[in-house]
Amino acid sequence: MSENKELQYSLLREAMKLHEEQKPQLPHGFEDDIMQKIEPKHHHRLVAIFSAVAAVAAIIAVVILVVPRLSTDSGTLATADTLEYSRPLTGHHDADKAMTSTASVDETESKASEKALAESSPAIRKAKVKPCHADDSSRYDVGHAVENNSKVVAVDREETYSADSYSEALSTLPDPKTMFIESSYDNSALSANRDRMVRELGLAQN
Amino acid sequence: METSETSIIRRILGGEKELFRYLVRTYEGMVYSLAIEVTGDEDVARDVAQEAFIKAYNALEKYDASKGRFSTWIATIAINIAKGKLRKRRQKPPTVSIDQKAVDAVDESAMDAFFDNPDEANARLLVEAIAQLPPDDRLLLTLFYTNDLSLAEIAEVTGARAGTIATRLSRIRKRLYVMMKGRKI
């Protein structure tokens, strides 16, 4: 049956009208009851906005306060015994090759540099420096790591690597930074130079 | 094009809470009436109406004027709340025994002629017959004949298809006609 025909039942319409009139009416004050129980919409919006701002602030606080500590704990500031030697260069083909070659450097030399590190001042150990070797491939890799904004910078005992140049490199890197210290045949010279670098770069305060 | 009602709703959403009073005033009668049809209890119906308006206000952001009239939306909310209260109370609607064979055998042209003739006496008798119908049937009659919702809108409110609603309305009229004939009209 079509909707138009449905609309023609005037008797039924009249009866429904009477049926409706027999129903009780809403008590006086119904409108006011409703209006008293609702809050302005902008109030809800303000609450929502403040909640969102508070949530964002909380997230930022967590990022600022907690994440650096977690990163430090997980070894981003690498220690000699917690980081793989080639970790800062991961993903760089040439660097990988170079580091493989670096890793094959004489073990005696490596042990000497680590011993020098172990003998260094508590401030230097706190800076979590990592020894590496003063051969060309290592220097090449460290340079690439800096270029790629890795959390790595290298210092060595050579006068050509001034504290200023590394300080500038460090300033472009995100915290926390890992400092590579190139080893030398002269461990005492390395130790003295590293001590100076760490002090001048402010890493001892990290 | 924005109707005055959608404009009011937009302003309410913008913080003009007092304008919601207009919507309450416009639809409180319809909402209460539907709640009474479903629950059969005026106190429960009042609670239903109040809950429906508060729920509608709190969810006003979700109302989409392009999908239907506000009346359809608020009716859907109210009916769902009312049916929820019925379920909680495990209240069974009263049943009316009607001879199904007599309903099936109704002469439709005679029935059409009967319903097309607005006679006051018959209208009063018909009101008594309507009162004996199950709540769901009275609800359909109220939505269609009192609130002027289309078959499509009733389908949206009740969750049934429009064709099913048309069939049910036809059956309800036949039942009413059989009930009226039983009175020797």
What would you call the quaternary organization?
A: heterodimer
Number of DSSP E strands of chain B: 0
Q: Any low-confidence stretches of chain A, pLDDT <50, length ≥5?
A: 73-106, 120-163, 182-186
> What is the general shape of chain A?
rod-shaped
Structural class of chain B: mainly alpha
Overall mean confidence score, pLDDT of chain B = 89
**Main structural class of chain A:** mainly alpha
Coarse shape of chain B: elongated
Distance between the termini of chain A: 84 Å
Number of helices of chain B: 10
Q: Strand fraction band of chain A?
A: 5-15%
**Order of helix and strand elements from N to C terminus of chain A:** HHHHHHHHEHEHEH
Spatial extent as radius of gyration of chain A: 36 Å
Helix content of chain A: 55-70%
Strand order of the largest sheet of chain A: 1-3-2
Number of strands of chain A: 3
Question: Strand portion of chain B, in percent?
Answer: under 5%
Distance between the termini of chain B: 50 Å
